[in-house]
């Protein structure tokens, strides 16, 4: 049986990741953070001295790496590099500002995206879970356009910067805002994740706290379930 899919897109700091995780837990669903794979791939490029701007080189790396992520619990992200035997736990290192700044160099490649999207679909299909929340930038439009629940989560740039600055130590609000705006601009050139596609539910969390944002997701899922028994 295929899992019920809840597709959630949105920019950095919209609350997308933490809200998706908490909503998935409350519904007893799995959670697939697709950004983690793009981040892990950027890390793998750095470790193996692959030029992230070269699509053929990144595709060759994708042929040989082993990527695993758990959809429940702590969501550990592990990478085995080409020719390697050790599965590196990259859960923490992929969240550093250095990696964040590098990811758009690999996420801009169309064929890299196709390959990762297929990997995401396989991970979900093989999960054996009743439902999976899958979050990223192009889930509602490209990865799972037929998902019964599709949500675009946004918040104003100022609110997003404030939230991110709270997570990052030692970076000023101005610096975080500038980083967010720069990354949005690069990402938006590849996929439009700032305006909802037709049929996608917009959840603006600018004036919502964490609990209210989670409830908004759960309400949207409940509504879709009622509409299709
Ligand atoms: O969501 P997160 O901030 O972890 O994503 C990191 C980067 O991965 C984004 O800035 C974007 O370049 C890329 N990404 C993407 N498509 C996705 C998820 C992430 O291009 N579905």
TrEMBL record:
Sorted UniProt keywords: ATP-binding, Cytoplasm, Kinase, Nucleotide-binding, Transferase
E.C. no: 2.7.4.25
Compartments reported by the entry: Cytoplasm
One GO CC term on file: cytoplasm
Record keyword Nucleotide-binding present: yes
CDD domains to which the protein is assigned, alphabetical: CMPK
Pfam families xref list: Cytidylate_kin (PF02224)
GO molecular function: ATP binding; CMP kinase activity; dCMP kinase activity
Binding site for ATP: 10-18
Domain Cytidylate kinase: 6-221
The organism's place on the tree of life at top rank: Bacteria
Protein's UniProt keywords contain Nucleotide-binding: yes
Main subcellular location of this protein, as a coarse class: cytoplasm
Gene Ontology BP, a term: pyrimidine nucleotide metabolic process
Catalytic activity: CMP + ATP = CDP + ADP; dCMP + ATP = dCDP + ADP
Database matches in Gene3D superfamilies: P-loop containing nucleotide triphosphate hydrolases
HAMAP family in the cross-refs: Cytidyl_kinase_type1 (MF_00238)
Family that this chain belongs to: Belongs to the cytidylate kinase family. Type 1 subfamily.
Name of protein: Cytidylate kinase
Organism: Leucobacter komagatae
